[in-house]
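Weekly modeling sync, notes
Attendees: S.R. (lead), two postdocs, one rotation student

Agenda item 3: backlog of single-chain predictions. S.R. asked that every request posted to the team notebook include the full sequence so nobody has to chase files. The rotation student volunteered to paste the first one in as an example of the format we agreed on. Action items at the bottom.

Example entry:
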Amino acid sequence: MRSYHINSGAGLDGLLLKEHAIPVPGPREVLVRVRACSLNFRELMILIHGYYPLPIRPDVVPVSDGAGEVVAVGEGVTRARVGDRVSSAIFPYWIDGPYTRDSAPQLGGSLDGMLTEYALLPEEGVVHIPDHLSFEEAAALPCAAVTAWNGLTGGRALQAGDTVLTLGSGGVSLFALQFAKLFGTRVIATTSSEEKAERLKALGADSVVNYRAASDWHVVVRELTDGRGVDQVIEVIGPSTIVQSIKSTRVSGEVALIGLATDPSSAADVGVHRAATAGLVTLRSIAVGSRAQFLAMNRAIAVNRLKPVIDRVFPFEEAKAAYQYYQEASPFGKVVISQN
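Predicted structure, as returned to the notebook:
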């Protein structure tokens, strides 16, 4: 079998293809023939920027998101059988409830990930794929989709008639838009171009604000909600937008922080604190989600036959090109690496 390996901060040239013996599953382990995996910003953080808030093992197999079929199971496995179509769970030991230190082991970090031909996973770390999805589509779910689901449902109860604000057209934002519409909510999205605005509207966005044309886009969002503000924001960008996201939110609304790293001593964070307290806004930090949330999300995806948005698919042999495209192209939807 072949698998790619990396070291944190090694850059694109540090993405190395190696050969191994196919592993044999031990007790409560499953062997998955990987058919597709997808890239998230965490992969660029680790390989290109050399930063990630959780431990990264040297010479690790990268990429948290993947899908394939179970080809062997170890003793005592009850959650999967040979032939099952499954996705990986980034945090295989985070079963339910709040995130804890015991939940921290994660694929493509402290555990080998999915950019490989065969992945050996704990049985808790696989989730069955909705029948209508291809392996490429299922590979798009574990990080971005579960994060969006957690962002919308893990805090305040999202209700029909609520208004949700999404930022940009990255994977989490697109899934948040799709999921929010399943709940019967109004969605306002921000973007940088009219072309992307039309694509967001085609996915169900009720209003789209071009933040290049309106730098004070929170004012436009307020106007679109008759001054009330939105009920929830899926905040995926960080320090450059967080204050405007808070100012877009109604009293007692919620901002889900996706991958936002803050420095309590910085002037920017003083502004965040003032904006949040002035509006009585709840800021909730998101760390993907649990297996239970993954399962709940998959049920909603299956019932509604929702399809992930995929920008481009690369073959396994062109993994480096996939990374480079994801880094440079500002894709609309997921970048997938396929082995079909």
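Discussion: group reviewed the output briefly. Residues 146-286 form a domain with the Rossmann fold fold (CATH 3.40.50.720).
Action items: rotation student to repeat for the remaining queue; S.R. to check formatting next week.
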